[in-house]
Amino acid sequence: MTSDSDSNDELPYGSLIDLKIEDRVYRGVLMPSHRFSQEDILTLKLDNGYNIGLKKSDDMEITVLEEPKDIHREEDKPKKEEGLPKISILATGGTIASYVDYHTGAVHPAQSAEEMIYANPELADRCVPEVDVLLSKLSEDIKPQEWEMIAERVVEEFRSGSEGVIIAHGTDTMGYTSAALSFLLEDLPGPVVLVGSQRSSDRPSSDAHLNLLAAVEMAKSDVSGVYVVMHQDLNDRRCSVHLGTKVRKMHTSKRDAFRSINCEPVGWIDPLKEKVELKELPDRKDTEPKIRGGIVKDVAMIYVHPGMDEKVILQTSGSKGVVLIGTGLGHIPTDLISSVEKITDDGTPVVITSQCLYGTVNCNVYSSGRKLKEAGVISGRDMLPETALVKLMWTLSREEDTRAIMEKNIAGEFSERRWV
Amino acid sequence: MTSDSDSNDELPYGSLIDLKIEDRVYRGVLMPSHRFSQEDILTLKLDNGYNIGLKKSDDMEITVLEEPKDIHREEDKPKKEEGLPKISILATGGTIASYVDYHTGAVHPAQSAEEMIYANPELADRCVPEVDVLLSKLSEDIKPQEWEMIAERVVEEFRSGSEGVIIAHGTDTMGYTSAALSFLLEDLPGPVVLVGSQRSSDRPSSDAHLNLLAAVEMAKSDVSGVYVVMHQDLNDRRCSVHLGTKVRKMHTSKRDAFRSINCEPVGWIDPLKEKVELKELPDRKDTEPKIRGGIVKDVAMIYVHPGMDEKVILQTSGSKGVVLIGTGLGHIPTDLISSVEKITDDGTPVVITSQCLYGTVNCNVYSSGRKLKEAGVISGRDMLPETALVKLMWTLSREEDTRAIMEKNIAGEFSERRWV
To answer: Is B172 a catalytic residue?
Structure first.
């Protein structure tokens, strides 16, 4: 066994065992623990392919029936085909970057490029995969400065001849990262595709494999720009392609959690049939990709609600910018508008978005909106609150007029379609 | 003219006029201004029923062709039918509580019960409406203490013989108020129905009238509990009935903006056919309604995002409780968990919900969730973040164990259905 996860434990991971707890005996392959595992639970892969979790106890008995098989045998190695496009796959962590050991069936985060390819041998039939592990993080732990690092690697990958770049990413903050890359990357010659999975590869319902194959098809397509590719529905056949600035995780666990908000997805992919349908998107270009601007992380985000204290607004005074997630068309309680004005008077940009998510902010309909506008607040129009946050972080790094950039459609963050 | 809005202005509101601006003449009835109007805009109702807005200017000329007709003539008054149920309609403000003057077509907020009935004469065919104006506020300005006042009035209305109580409410925070009433009201003998509208009654696409008629049907139904009634779709025929704790405004402007989250609506109403289809809901009871608990407003709400500073968490230290709107299954960046622990160590309850909105929080899947649980954070399960906020405000008013109440299903805030 080459797994990293059994080094500090004497359990016979990878072996076929009988595990006796009290009067019951469970037969299966003992799965290695990994950093997503609960510490006191043993996982056993049963003959029917399902995993079960069993609480560790002192009186359990383990009988090893069969030693673990060796993995990474030479003949398993995917062969690189001639003429296939080079696609970079950058792993940052999360469920998608888990590595399925086909000999034991165990899942653990890919620690190396080799593991990532072994977990997905079909990759090599579709492209020449250049895999690298950039980060190994749950996505809630990815920091804004890491968006810059990822963007820099994307530029390098294109410069070194990749035709597309895939970012394997945890789903929690994938929408924030896709928005950040959309603003940070300029003159992209080809597609940058973020992909994640909602169910780890050891579960029969896992979406990891299909999503990754769809991401490869997207990375090979004739377009440029930043996209997110995830399950379209629960049929396990098609994936949707979302614009990096318009996509949001709308379910904690379902495979079709990612939705385009205030617009349609920009494409659909049937990876098993290698079928890619895309709307009109920017073509591949013969351009030199570069980073535009950077990320200023000191931006506050406020969720507006009844009973909100004005101190919540005033406490943002050290921030470089503020995003308000207002109610309805973009409102906050009228008696808090003067506090917002104190912030804007100091020259701090304040952007208003809506907790409705769908539809557009409109500060002209009601008096409270008009007062907010008079207080100097910038309308986020139909931008997602998360995209507005990332855009403001990015805009603040530039030496141009903040309001002008915030109001300009930089990376499709405003829909063309009017919402009625 | 009896409108309140022309008192400080000499314009001939209600008159048929020719309005000449530069070289164009517009003919129509001059609408009174109201508090939702823009100050520098005149509104003219054209012969085709549409309103147009024209910018006031010094060189415009007005010719009065016809004086305004009297309104509130005796013969217009709706007759109270015998045997119809008494339904209370409490106006709190917002677009729904606007008053359409059928003689001029003008819209302004109902300032009196009379106006509310005149605006909706069919009410009197369906019930004996007892109308009162409690508040005249945009709903973003409704304060938590006003939820208590509304709840007290609901109790009084039932005690004085009403068979159902309708609350006409602005849509921005209607979901917060419906959640508050769900927790505050106990032993309700009949239904409490919140209703709003997304388009004011002067617009051809207004949903005000249909929603109000549907609310009356719901208020007359054989159930008890707190509900929200709003357009089901854009067909202008049916309304959905939502549980007060599970409903959220999901679009800034569309008429079908209100959606049940993590459950189906509990009913559908075709008000023109007087058809009401309801799922299994608590029956009407012969009980004495009462207020349980109160509202403690000092609860903070934090929207978790990449780059969030720990000070955002630490600054809540004066609050009585905190609701986190985490990512995914209910996560926050791992390096912020120790800050949360400082808050919980002080005995302040912290509840975690998800910005995905759909699906349920699960702190057992990933290590970051397990650490949050170890830090003493209470899982909001599949409760809406807004409902969790209101429930925590309510729970803190009670002298019982906060965690125990937060984890108990009080008013349908947790769905029975498991989300996979």
So the answer is: yes
Domains and their CATH numbers in chain A: 4-66 (2.30.30.520), 80-291 (3.40.50.1170), 299-407 (3.40.50.40)
Name residue A193's beta-bridge partners: A166, A227
- Phi first, then psi: what are they for B298, rounded to 5°? -80, 65
Query: Residue A69 is encoded by which pair of tokens?
Result: 């098989």
Tokens of A409: 């459609």
Residue A73 pLDDT grade (very low, low, confident, very high; cuts 50, 70, 90): very low
Backbone angles phi, psi at A312, to 5 degrees: -60, -35
- pLDDT tens-digit readout, A352-376: 999 999 999 998 888 888 899 999 9
**Least CB-CB distance to B140: which of A35, A325, A327?**
A327
A332 lies within 8 A of chain B by CB: yes
Judged by CB atoms closer than 8 Å, whether chains meet at A328 and B299 is answered as no
**CA–CA distance from A38 to each of A34, A309, B386, B418 (Å)?**
9, 39, 31, 22
The beta strands (E) that lie in A9-145 are given as: 16-21, 24-31, 41-45, 51-55, 61-66, 86-91, 98-100, 107-109, 128-133
How much is the pTM?
A: 0.82
Cα B321 from chain centroid? 24
Q: Which residue has the tokens 């990262």?
A: A177
Q: What share of chain B has pLDDT > 70, as a percent?
A: 85
- Chain A residues within 8 A of B393 when measuring between CB atoms: 307
Question: What is the value of ipTM here, to two decimals?
Answer: 0.82
Cα–Cα distance between A342 and A336 in angstroms, integer? 10
DSSP assignment letter at B20: E
Find the radius of gyration of the CA atoms of chain A.
Answer: 24
CA dist A10 and B390 (Å) reads 49
Work out the average pLDDT over A402-415: 96
Long-range pairs for A368-374: beta carbons < 8 A, 24 or more residues apart: A368/A331, A368/A332, A368/A333, A368/A334, A368/A337, A368/B138, A368/B140, A368/B141, A369/A329, A369/A330, A369/A331, A370/B38, A371/A334, A371/A337, A372/A326, A372/A330, A372/A331, A372/A332, A372/A337, A372/A340
Q: Do A327 and B360 touch (CB under 8 A)?
A: no
**Which pLDDT band holds residue A399 (cuts at 50, 70, 90)?**
confident
Helix (H) / strand (E) element for B28: namely strand B24-31
- Secondary structure (3-state) at B147: helix
Give the pLDDT band (50/70/90) at residue A109.
Answer: low
